[in-house]
Design a protein that fits this description.
By secondary structure, the protein is α+β, with helices and mostly antiparallel strands. The chain has four helices and nine strands. Strand 1 and strand 2 form a beta hairpin.
């Protein structure tokens, strides 16, 4: 199988199989890092962990202590929230749901008003 070179942030180079996922590269670096990884920068472009690598690249793993990783986490979380609400309340109309500086929110157009019990169902 064809090999590609991955240059890590510390300057070290790893040779891996072409087509490997970013996650599998990170897991090969350290399983603990793979558990903490939120996203990555491949050649300075933000990417998901399950994107595949097909050429020599530079790789920077982003953990939650990174502002970029927090933005990715919050953005994804807002979509998960919207999906959970739609599953429980199919008539809910989605408004906006952006990531913000310290979290995220989502606007829903729904006649039902959410209660504490609803929040527990949504979290589940």
């Amino acid at each position: 199988m064809e090999k590609i070179k991955i240059t890590l942030k510390d300057g070290s180079i790893r040779e891996v199989e072409k087509g490997i996922s970013v996650y599998d590269v990170v897991k090969g670096i350290h399983s603990g890092l793979a558990k903490e990884a939120i996203a990555a920068e491949v050649d300075n472009t933000l990417t998901g962990l399950y994107d595949t690598l097909t050429k020599d690249v530079s790789l920077n793993v982003l953990k939650f202590d990174s502002e970029k990783a927090q933005d990715v986490f919050r953005h994804t979380s807002s979509h998960i929230l919207a999906q959970a609400v739609k599953r429980l309340y199919p008539d809910a109309k989605l408004g906006i749901g952006p990531a913000i500086e310290n979290g995220f929110y989502y606007d829903f157009d729904l006649e039902h008003r959410f209660t504490e019990e609803d929040l527990a169902k949504i979290e589940k």
